[in-house]
Amino acid sequence: MRRSLPPVASKVSDTLIARGHHGVIITQDSPTHTAREAADALGVQLGAITKSLVFLLDDDPVLLLVSGAHQVHLSRTGQRLEGTLTRAPAAMVLAVTGQPIGGVAPLGHPTNLPTFVDNALSRHTELWAAGGHPNTLFRTTFGELVRITAGLAIDVD
Questions:
Q1: Mean pLDDT score of the chain, rounded to an integer?
Q2: How far is Cα 93 from Cα 29, in angstroms, rounded to an integer?
Q3: What is the predicted pLDDT for the residue at 33?
Q4: N or C end of the chain, less CB within 10 A?
């Protein structure tokens, strides 16, 4: 049975298509709030899951697209980005992305956030990222992810 996408995921799909991606978003039967849950549901390596995490670089929100197998090392990554990196509060994440935590996509936000992509994601042929809602995911590649987000590849660990 075909299911319609939640409105926020439809916006992500439209943004993907506008940026030259196929725009296909799959819907899971149950939410995949964590990278581990997404990897298990898809039967892929944890490192192939792209976590979309909002941080504050000094006082400005930025988006880090991080391998599911990594944790962001705040001080080293902050130094690479030439500022102080801290986690954004949940209310700010929702405000700047328009998407719930556990489902934040790499794009489709009300404003374009400065985006940085974990180099570790390049080790995987196929990547999966949230589609704007905890029950949605889409497939991409490292090169395509950098392109469609206008991201800058960096080391985050």
A1: 94
A2: 25
A3: 80
A4: N
The mean pLDDT value for 4-20 works out to: 94
The token duo for 137 is: 């995911």
Strand (E) or helix (H) holding 100: none
Lookup: tokens for 73 = 């090392």
Distances (CA, A) of 110 to 62, 107, 117, 142: 13, 9, 20, 23
Residue 113, token pair as written in the block: 């956030």
DSSP conformation letters of 118-156: EGGGGG-SSEEEE-SSTTEEEEE-HHHHHHHHT-EEE--
pLDDT score at 1: 36
**Contacts for 53 with CB less than 8 Å, ≥ 6 apart:** 63, 64, 65, 66, 72, 87, 104
d(CA 21, CA 13): 9
Exposed, middle or buried by CB within 10 Å (0-12, 13-18, 19+), for 2?
Answer: exposed
Helices (H) and strands (E) in the chain, counts: 5, 8
Instruction: Give strand pairing partners of 49.
Output: 128
State the greatest distance between any 2 C-alpha atoms of the chain, in Å, as a whole number.
49
